[in-house]
Amino acid sequence: MQFPFDYPVREMTYKEVNDRKLRLYVSEPDQEAANRPVILFFQGGSFQPNPKFSPAQFQHQARYFASIGIVSICVDYRTGRDAGFTPLQAIMDVKSAVRWVRQHAEELGVDPEKLAICGASAGGYISVSSIMFDRLNDDMDDVSVNAVPDKLVIFAAGMDGVDIMSRRYPELLPIAEEISPIHHVRRCLPQTLWICGTGDDLYDQNRGFVREMQDAGNPITFKTYDGMEHGFFNYGWHNNTYFHETRQDIEGFLRPWLEHTAE
């Protein structure tokens, strides 16, 4: 599959499934160096039969973070455009991508212990689920490699797996609760920045889940944007006001890694 990137990216295959090559689209800082922070982006809208977003959804954020010294990767993972797709595959793909990057850290010039992932909407659900549900692993993965990121950024993600499966994948209803983060609250997340607009249909669910997870000991910062809808942070929306503001939120969240790298 080809996706519309506006900027030069380095394409790397992290997994092959049948004849499908799953790729990483890497935006690299101008200066070559070792042990740089790395962030992986997972698009939203991926559970729809014909997703309107592609891995390029976060290309503008990736380009910016590369410019300040963070290796930035937009991840191609299986979505509703793939035949026979279910969210279980996407959850496994998140883990595969994280493991691949850690296994190829030297080649990429990154610190395998300064790895962040950012997921929006469906991409946020699979990002959180990849951390919460240990048993979901691709048979091809080396499970001895840690698949849990060191930092996590989420944009307004549905956390009720029963609701998601009942609407999109009713064939998964028998196991829906098993893959529903809201039904498995426990201490498991790394340091997390969770961003949500108060006008988002998922706002109440996100706020409730975050509170329960905070009470369970998870280090989550919940940042809200008054009145903003689902996807408000996207490049090209709202004259890019919130694209820039949320980009600054993420930069501040990752800044300690950059300061440490510079020492």
Automatic annotation (TrEMBL):
<dbReference type="InterPro" id="IPR013094">
    <property type="entry name" value="AB_hydrolase_3"/>
</dbReference>
<dbReference type="Pfam" id="PF20434">
    <property type="entry name" value="BD-FAE"/>
</dbReference>
<dbReference type="InterPro" id="IPR029058">
    <property type="entry name" value="AB_hydrolase_fold"/>
</dbReference>
<dbReference type="InterPro" id="IPR049492">
    <property type="entry name" value="BD-FAE-like_dom"/>
</dbReference>
<keyword id="KW-0378">Hydrolase</keyword>
<feature type="domain" description="BD-FAE-like">
    <location>
        <begin position="28"/>
        <end position="130"/>
    </location>
</feature>
<dbReference type="Pfam" id="PF07859">
    <property type="entry name" value="Abhydrolase_3"/>
</dbReference>
<protein>
    <submittedName>
        <fullName>Acetyl esterase/lipase</fullName>
    </submittedName>
</protein>
<dbReference type="InterPro" id="IPR050300">
    <property type="entry name" value="GDXG_lipolytic_enzyme"/>
</dbReference>
<feature type="domain" description="Alpha/beta hydrolase fold-3">
    <location>
        <begin position="178"/>
        <end position="233"/>
    </location>
</feature>
